[in-house]
Amino acid sequence: MHRALGGALYPDFPSNSCPPSGSQPAFWVGPRHLAGDDGRFYDVVADTLAGLGWTSLTIVRGRHEPDEAPEDRQVLRSTVLHISPDALRWAQWVFADEPFTLGELPVAWQVSARAEASSPLAQWSAYFTRDVPGEAVVDFLVALDASEQPAVPLAGSELVLDAVSAHGWFRDIDQRHAAATDPTFTSHISLGEVPHLIQDADPRVLVAEADDAGAAGWQAWSEPRLGASWLWAASFAASVPHDLVAAFAASLSSTAPVLRRVLPEATQERLLRAPAS
After folding, report:
1. Are 217 and 191 in contact (CB under 8 A)?
2. Do residues 19 and 276 lie in contact, with contact meaning Cβ atoms separated by under 8 Å?
3. pTM for this prediction
4. Cβ-count burial of 137 within 10 angstroms (0-12 exposed, 13-18 middle, 19+ buried)?
5. CA torsion angle 240 242 247 252 (round to 10)
6. What integer pLDDT is reported at residue 180 of this predicted model?
7. What's the rounded Cα separation, in Å, for the pair 63 and 152?
8. pLDDT digits over 99-134, tens only?
9. What average pLDDT does this structure show over 144-155?
10. CB contact at 8 A, 277 and 19
11. Are 200 and 215 in contact (CB under 8 A)?
């Protein structure tokens, strides 16, 4: 059964908006953190970056045998790289390569930043799998684009928890200053151990021993059913500024509905829906 959105629960419900063109019916849905990426994760992010003036480059890797026709070339790996005008920040669509996974889900977008254009290494990276709501990644990138010093932290970690608490998420009773969950206990954000392969220039990460706690980074994920596969995951290296993570967290936990045509199978029954007309 479809339930209407609006009223006190969704005060920002856009009642007079028109759905985009397409054959599939469109719905305003919530909560956002369970709404998936609408099957348009690349397009939504790439269009935003183009609007911000970022340059896109397509990198194709393959094998070309002697006397082989161009159409027979074997493409092994490919990626699309988006670079900011000042070259201090960039985003890669790496889903086709599936370089590694978060929560057994392949990473789709990798976002990085550095302090100086002359530096060959990223100061930090953030990673997003498919079905992370595109709105949250867009808001993270808009905040990153607006930052004059994308590799310099401007606020403390409490800013991230304040962002989700303002939208009704609960702080973890045992980790009030490091973790929070949504009211249905399906989505989580936590400051703690960073997964393997997360790129970070913090020397504490580089020299940490196996038993050391090392530098902590923010991790977010959605587990619609306890013990079941995750819907999505996001990982932020220890050096990602907290104000940027807070922009992601505020958007992720927002109570404003989002427009969707494609709903995740794992969360369809948990979503409130209203036809977009």
Report:
1. yes
2. yes
3. 0.84
4. buried
5. 90
6. 97
7. 41
8. 688 888 999 999 999 999 888 889 999 999 999 999
9. 90
10. yes
11. yes
When the pLDDT of each residue in the chain is averaged and rounded to a whole number, the result is 84
Q: Which two tokens stand for residue 33?
A: 């953190």
Residues 103 and 113: their CA atoms lie apart, in Å, by 24
Report residue 35 as tokens.
């709404």
**Phi-psi map region of 187: left, alpha, beta (phi>0 left; psi -120 to 50 alpha):** beta
Q: Is 53 left (phi over 0), alpha (psi -120 to 50) or beta?
A: left
Strand order in the sheet with 258-260: 258-260, 27-30, 272-275
Question: Which residue in 137, 63, 129, 144 sits closest to 98, CA to CA?
Answer: 129
Q: CA-CA distance, 13 to 265, in Å (whole number)?
A: 24
Can you tell me the distance from the alpha carbon of 261 to that of 18, in angstroms, rounded to the nearest whole number? 13
- Helices 242-252 and 134-146 pack at an angle, to 10 degrees, of 150
Where residue 12 falls among pLDDT bands split at 50, 70, 90? very low
Report the first-to-last Cα separation within the chain, whole angstroms: 18
Cα separation, 222 vs 228, whole angstroms: 10
| Per-residue pLDDT at 153 | 83
Residue 56 has which token pair?
Answer: 């896109």
